[in-house]
Design brief:
single chain, alpha/beta, Ribosomal Protein L4, Chain: A, six-stranded mixed beta sheet, 6 strands, 16% strand, Large ribosomal subunit protein uL4, Ribosomal_uL4_dom_sf, Ribosomal_uL4, Ribosomal_uL4-like, RNA-binding
Length: 206
């Protein structure tokens, strides 16, 4: 069971916390982590790219000149791919790029991502992040005290002031325990959790 330090918003160590090995201490499955990242990025794709093939481009019904005797190469249509305004040979068509991952695979990938952050000492636990007002400067000060720049901060429920305070800080993203994903965990250098979110994650994924 991993034991990590707990800090306050001033950046001072105020205690320690034991992290569940079932969530934060599993063996990292790189294949599932990679598949989860590809899955998330693929599911975001609109898949609306479209170009016309020679059968869809208007015009070109008449043979431009006779087959023989002109000195030109033989042509059957002015909408063939080699002509300006012609169709595209293997034109892209709208498609769905998404694919399905099993629930167990998703959970295992998320646990692997969390465990990798613990192994790399890139997980910071804060006792509490609560704001009485919306103030970007206050959130920036917390990151400065923790010596963190690019971070994913997982906040508890009903913490709207903190979420909005972090919105304009470059390289920082906030999430809730039910919205965390493998891609964001890996994208940001540091993962910041509160004691409340650690308990919630362990309750859901243990």
């Amino acid at each position: 069971m991993a034991n990590v330090a707990v800090y306050n918003i001033e950046g001072k160590e105020v205690g320690t916390i034991d992290l569940s090995d079932a969530v934060f201490g599993v063996e990292v499955n790189e294949h599932l982590v990679h598949m989860a990242v590809v899955n998330q990025l693929a599911n975001k794709r609109q898949g609306t790219q479209k170009a016309k093939t020679r059968s869809e481009v208007s015009g070109g019904g008449r043979k431009p000149w006779r087959q023989k005797g002109t000195g030109h190469a033989r042509q059957g249509s002015t909408r063939s791919p080699q002509w300006t305004g012609g169709g595209v040979v293997f034109a892209p068509v709208p498609r769905d790029y998404s694919f399905k991952m099993n629930r167990k695979e998703k959970r295992a990938a998320l646990k692997s991502a969390l465990s990798s952050k613990v192994a790399e000492n890139k997980l910071i636990v804060v006792d509490e992040i609560k704001f009485d007002e919306i103030k970007t400067k206050n959130f920036a000060n917390i990151l400065k005290n923790l010596n963190v720049s690019k971070a994913l901060v997982v906040l508890g429920e009903d913490n709207k002031n903190a979420e909005i305070s972090a919105r304009n800080i470059a390289g920082v993203k906030t999430a809730r325990t039910n919205t965390i994903n493998v891609y964001d965990i890996l994208k940001y250098n540091t993962l910041i959790l509160t004691k409340e979110t650690v308990a919630n994650i362990e309750e859901v994924y243990a």
